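Might you be able to check the backbone structure tokens below? Thank you kindly.
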Amino acid sequence: MVFSFYKKEKLQIIAPVNGTIIPLEDVPDPVFGQKMMGEGIAMCPSGGDIHSPVSGTVILIAATKHAIGIRADDGTEILIHVGLETVALNGKGFTLAVNQGDKISVGQRLMEVDWEYIKVHAKSIVTPIVITNSQDGKKQYTLTDEKNAVVGKTVIITGS
């Protein structure tokens, strides 16, 4: 087909962890709940490691290991913020499997999380997944209607 190269691929952001999907507006933190950081979705993890929701590059790892920023191959920037008020844990409960600058593929393990430790020592295990450059207007994002997600399988956000 002659015109097939004009057709843009849709971005698919896959669930980075197993769990229940909740609207970002329901996150009990105004920075995420009021979408100050961008459009997105949140998950209440049921356990397991955090995996990459897209193929791309790790562009940020918080000094306290609780958050990872990824630039997808199409330029979309995604922040995975594990739990709420987890910066106060100073890295305890998180074991990184990647470094800033690493090229990653969808489904690749990014970090191990001690969910029991997080439940006891942080405000919440709710994990926002935010598109930090969603306000640039270059893409339209559609959030899933699914209520439960399987890591590496469930598409939670699409962009076009």
User: Anything to note?
Assistant: The two ends are 21 Å apart (CA to CA). Helices lie at 30-33, 115-121. Residues 115-121 form the longest helix (7 residues).
